[in-house]
Amino acid sequence: MLRGDRLRAMRHRKGYTHEQLAEQLGLNAKQIWRYESGKTDPSGAVVTRIARLFEVSTDFLLGLTDEPVAAMLENNLSDEERSVITAMRQGDRLAAIRLIVTES
Predict the structure, then answer these.
(1) Which residue among 19, 22, 34, 72 is least enclosed by CB atoms within 10 Å?
(2) DSSP one-letter string for 2-57
């Protein structure tokens, strides 16, 4: 179940009205009010869009964690990210920079 209080707080922090947030998410303003008040729950796809818009984890939106951003764990890193970190740990900043620049 979506934590409506968290959605409301994030909306206020960004300065969005119900209408503005609804437009960003491709929804109706009344639906935003329903989510915030706990009258209805959004689909998984909508929770994902909300998380991306506010740059928080879906777990945070669902109340499964109090941390807005997931902790960076080694098993969550891509191979490219691991390569950059390995180069940095080996003291080869130039190699790390090359990896970052060539990955885009």
Answers:
(1) 72
(2) --HHHHHHHHHHHT--HHHHHHHHTS-HHHHHHHHHTSS---HHHHHHHHHHHT--
Tell me which residue of 24, 47, 26 sits closest to 35, measured CA to CA. Answer: 47
Domain architecture of the chain: domains with CATH: 4-61 (1.10.260.40), 72-104 (no CATH)
pTM: 0.67
- The per-residue pLDDT for range 4-41, each reduced to its tens digit, is 999 999 999 999 999 999 999 999 999 999 999 999 99
Nearest CA to 5 among 28, 38, 27, 47? 38
